[in-house]
Amino acid sequence: MKTNVGGLDKTLRMIVGIVLIVLAATGMVGVWGWIGVVPLLTGLFKTCPVYSLLGISTCKSKA
User: Fold this and answer.
1) CB-hemisphere CA count at 13 Å for 61?
2) Which of the pair, 60 or 15, is modelled with greater confidence?
3) Concatenated DSSP letters of 2-63
């Protein structure tokens, strides 16, 4: 898949993902906290399937 997740977007996705996973693992939130795997993976792989469907990209364009 084509890269469509840029710098700040990537960082925020990874932080939110890790926080949700930690909260779920420690029992502070319910099972739904494991959804944090999704933003973590989209940040790590720098690609978001929803962005692809909508034609969005937060990457800086290469001139």
Assistant:
1) 2
2) 15
3) -----HHHHHHHHHHHHHHHHHHHTTSS-GGGGGGHHHHHHHHHT--HHHHHHT---SPPP-
Measured distance CA(28)–CA(20) in Å, rounded: 9
**What is the spatial distance between Cα 39 and Cα 2, in angstroms, rounded to a whole number?**
17
pLDDT at site 17? 98
Mean pLDDT of the 2-15 span: 95
Structure tokens at 47: 């690609």
- 45 has a pLDDT exceeding 80: yes
